[in-house]
Specification:
Length: 162
Amino acid sequence: MAQLPLSPAPQRPETKTPGKPEAELIPKPLLRAMIGIALLSLALTTYAVLTGRPHEGVPAPGKVVAEKLVVLKDIDARHATVSDPEGNILLDLPEGGFVDVMAAAVRRSRAVARITDNPPVRIVRYDNGRLAMEDPATGWSTELYAFGADSKAAFERILDMK
């Protein structure tokens, strides 16, 4: 059987031509548009601050109808406990769900604020239907009703416990 001679591998032409610049990764008009959007955002924010424009999307104030101090402990990725300030366990949640997520959020805000202990948080129900969790140690708060009916119900159950 005769062997066919192997031809050399085809050579690729060089993609760079000497003396010719490479194609731009971000076209100049797009770059100018991005800078323009950033400057426009800065101008709008400056205008809003200087003219005293009221904040949008801020929850309406209300009177406190019920509140409870609880200690949330994030055991691991799923397990959370809820106790009163004296340390009595109110709920032990192996599948903590949203309560565990909120415990992790509180833990994170405290880590940022360099708070090492675990003081109680406030769960507060207002007369206008708002349900909030507030951390007096850091000033952090969240509107629990914004996460859906099931998530709100989990904290309403904690609030209504004796």
